[in-house]
Amino acid sequence: MTSSRRMAAAMSALAVVASGLVSAAVIGVAPALADHCDPAEQASQGQQQNNNRQRRNGDQQGQDDQQDQNQNQGQDQGQNQDQGQNQDQGQNQDQGQNQDQGQDQNQGQDQNQGQNDQQQNGDQNNQQNNQQNNGDQQQGQDQQAPQGGAKLLDPAASPEDAPEAAPEDEQTASTFSRRRNNPTRTATPVPTRNNPGGGNASPTASPTGSATNDPDEAACADLGPFPEDFVDIRRVAPQRVNARFNRNGSRGTFVSQCGRNENKHNNPDNFIVAPGVSNGAHHLHDYVGNLSTDAFSTDESLAAAGTTCRLGDRSTYFWPVLRNRKVDANDNDPDGNVGQQLTARAVQLQFRGNASSRVVAMPRFLRIITGDAKAATNGTANAKAAWSCTGFQNRITTDKYPLCPRGSLVLRILDFPSCWDGQNTDSANHRTHVVFPDQNGACPQGTRAIPQLRMTLAYSVPQGPSYALDAFPEQKHNPVTDHADFANVMPDRLMQTVVSCINRGRRC
Q: Which of 268, 337, 411, 508 could form a disulfide with 501 if both were Cys (CB 3.0 to 4.6 A apart)?
């Protein structure tokens, strides 16, 4: 009977060890990495790897403790058995049986103690994992807090009329941990410059990229954008974004209604900057207005084409597309513009007046660009990116993608230069023939104020840092590279209507 009990105790100990090894093998399996390039995944993968390492360390500690307990138990059994044999030789059988019962009781106590220690270690590991999971869950709830949102009524409503929402103590994109082994992605230091309309900002240069030894992450490691390229819009300070009008200013507006590119007119061309070059932009453009726009467009081809705009406006308006990076789409793009293309929920093409003077008509076929598609490497001298959220139009970020509350749409606000040299429809750098007004809204000497085009694009994007702008590959999808293009192909009569509405202070 004594031998049977000892054998049962030994088998029970082996079963406990085997159970611990199986549990460790199961828990230690790392999750499969996502096969898309979602910035939110980049932030969460590091946390998941830390959790896995802690679980494996906890399991290994449990195995070591169990082995030590089994060795001690075996030593105790051997010593007790030797003592029992010596006592059996010198004493009667009853004393030997009593000693055996004492040994069995000691063995049971040792085994129970080992199991209790193992259970205690498991409880401690579970408690640590639960705390980490609770922290992750709280971070997700903070990031998606449905506070401060607004319905989309007019995406280009005056920022001064937007309600102010007090910043709240919430988790923001800036708290995301950077990925391991990160080399710095260097860019030109960014000087303080004016926001569209005169608000001051000091945007940061290109943020940090990353490298990785994991082959599953290699395709996305340096693609961008990165978690630090995003900011909670409620962390952005309110500001005045429009110059104050004086009594000589022209306060009217005219809106050209051209749709949202529902007909999917897209190509990676830019006939203004790279004429005659297919894929000259190396990123996809959305087009509204002129139906024929591509790399080979000319004044004559544009004038002969159809349009999506009302009132015969054959002008062409285009901008780089925005993509949902949570969806595996376009993943074979040679320029790294991956993700599902997003169509704007609302597009407003508004021509505005000048704060200090009346405006004159644009010449037909005038070509204008705004922003710099290579601002992440060129520096921000020509950058004009402006990002916001509906309900927060008085909060503008120039170098970060905004994280908007639920119910609020992401806004891209693209203001064009509006001080024309009075002679040329284009220039060698596509900038010197039309420049921006100064901080007070006045045009430089030798230039004339023309209607200023403001594009306001509103998007519904996935929650969190999971969307990106199409860009040149080396720009890492940096939000500071947002830009847009315009060529005026309005009939002269329509342009005169635009000028009249603006100078008379009307809204047309």
A: 508
Strands 230-232 and 401-403: parallel
Tell me: the pLDDT tens digits for 446-474?
999 999 999 999 999 999 999 999 999 99
pLDDT, position 146 = 35
Cβ distance 396 to 196 under 8 Å? yes
By C-alpha distance, which of 415, 411, 414 is closest to 388? 411
Tell me: cis bond preceding 225? Omega within 30 of 0 counts. yes
Cα separation, 258 vs 306, whole angstroms? 12
CB 177 within 8 A of CB 202: no
Strand partners, 351: 254, 453
What is the rounded CA–CA span in Å between residue 405 and residue 467?
15
User: What is the SS3 assignment for 114?
Assistant: helix
Element (H, E) at 256: strand 253-256
- The reported pTM is 0.66
The rounded distance, in Å, linking the Cα atoms of 23 and 125 is 13
CA distance from start to end of the chain: 102
* Three-state DSSP string of 312-380: HCCCEEEEECEEECCCCCCCCCCCCCCCEEECCCEEEEEEECCCCCCCCCCCCCCEEEEECCCHHHHCC
Q: What is the 3-state secondary structure (H, E, C) of 389-405?
A: ECCCCCCCECCCEEECC
